[in-house]
Amino acid sequence: MAFIQETWPNVYDKTYRFLNCLDYMNLRLTGRFVATVDSILTSWVTDNRDAGNIRYDRTLIKQCGISEEKLPEIVRCTDVIGTLCAAAAVELGLSKETPVVAGAVDNSAAAVGSGAVRDGEAHLYIGTSSWIGAHVGFKKTDVFAQIASVPCAINGRYLATALQSSAGANLSFLCDRIFFHQDGRGVERPRDAYSALEKIAEGVPPGSRGLIYTPWMFGERSPVDDPNLRAGFLNLSLQHSRDDMVRAVLEGVALNTRWMAAPFQRFLKKPMDEITLVGGGATSDLWCQIFADVLNLRVRQMESPIQANAVGAALIGFVGIGALSYNDVPELPRIRRVYLPDPKTKLVYDELFETFKLAYRRLAPLYRRLNFGKQVQR
Fold it and tell me: What's 292's domain CATH number?
């Protein structure tokens, strides 16, 4: 909004309402200009202290500099905001009487889709980036570990989130820049590329024969807010192979997750004993087991973890029309498998984790010298 106001003032003047992607879809479906309590969050102009009454704050709007009249009405994620307008009904082949529920943004929807909707129940989303999330009944921010509880799809509740900048992006880098990249020209990634990487890593013992990977491709957000950090392999020797490097990447993401899990549990004021994995990374049996061993938690793998966002959106819709309540949700997701930590492997990862944290303390000053003030080229 600020960019448009400053760069294209003529466009800003002609703008009737500013809408997030979700809210624009709702406009197309119903003709209403609304924003959900979670979609409006990153406009940074709402008072979020009462989860049941998220509203605009005029002081924040004044500081933002965006005209209040250009901001949409705020609704709850489960509110029925109308029925399909005539054009949408024709295009979709549905009745004009079809109700439209406001819905939620991706992280809110994934949280519901994981089934972890009771207070303190955690899920771990492994996509390009990743996050640990859990619903809570309190508004709180940990400015040191970059963890906050924010408005979400469940009315009266917040979603506590700790975000890791790069997770699956590290595997994408291996595929697109290393394994299937030739003479500066992109080589088409095989459909089974990630499955191939998993098979490669399966033959490597836990600990990757002493090879450590730090997954800070784009810096890091939690538990340290440091844009200067970068990824790298540590302790690489002639004894290591491609196979070790692939497994080290999987373990590095898990070790980084464990790093932010400690302040997250302090934030929740309770220990986690189980976590549900969702997102593309959760399709990997090996990675699920690595997470169980590194985090020392029971890991639940959903049957269709990539669809967690879509499943969550559907569940929010059912709650909105009264077909379900959130109390029904924990029993609905289909769990493919539960992974238990291996005590022997846990010992390996406990030692590796201490080395991982030491690597951060030693390397952070170096990365600051190399990258301070420079933007990451994405």
Answer: 3.30.420.40
Beta strands of 95-239 (E only): which ranges? 99-101, 122-126, 130-136, 141-142, 147-151, 158-164, 181-182, 185-186, 212-214, 232-234
> Is residue 115 included in any domain, yes or no?
yes
**Three-state secondary-structure class, residue 237:** coil
For the stretch 190-225, pLDDT in tens is 888 889 999 999 999 999 999 999 999 989 999 999
**Burial of 249 from C-beta contacts in 10 A (0-12 / 13-18 / 19+):** buried
pLDDT digits (tens, 9 = 90+) for 289-329: 999 999 999 999 999 999 999 999 999 999 999 999 999 99
What one-character DSSP code corresponds to residue 121?
-
Round to the nearest angstrom and report the end-to-end CA distance of the chain: 22
Q: Is the pLDDT of residue 41 over 70?
A: yes
Q: Which domain holds residue 11?
A: 2-101
In sequence order, what are the residues at sequence separation of 6 or more whose Cβ sits closer than 8 angstroms to the Cβ of residue 20?
35, 39, 40, 105
User: What is the per-residue pLDDT for 378?
Assistant: 45
Tally the domains of the chain.
2
> Rounded to the nearest 5°, which phi and psi values hold at 126?
-115, 100
Q: Are residues 59 and 150 in the same domain?
A: no
- Is the same domain home to 33 and 117? no
Question: Are 19 and 110 found together in one domain?
Answer: no
The reply to whether 184 and 276 lie within a common domain is yes
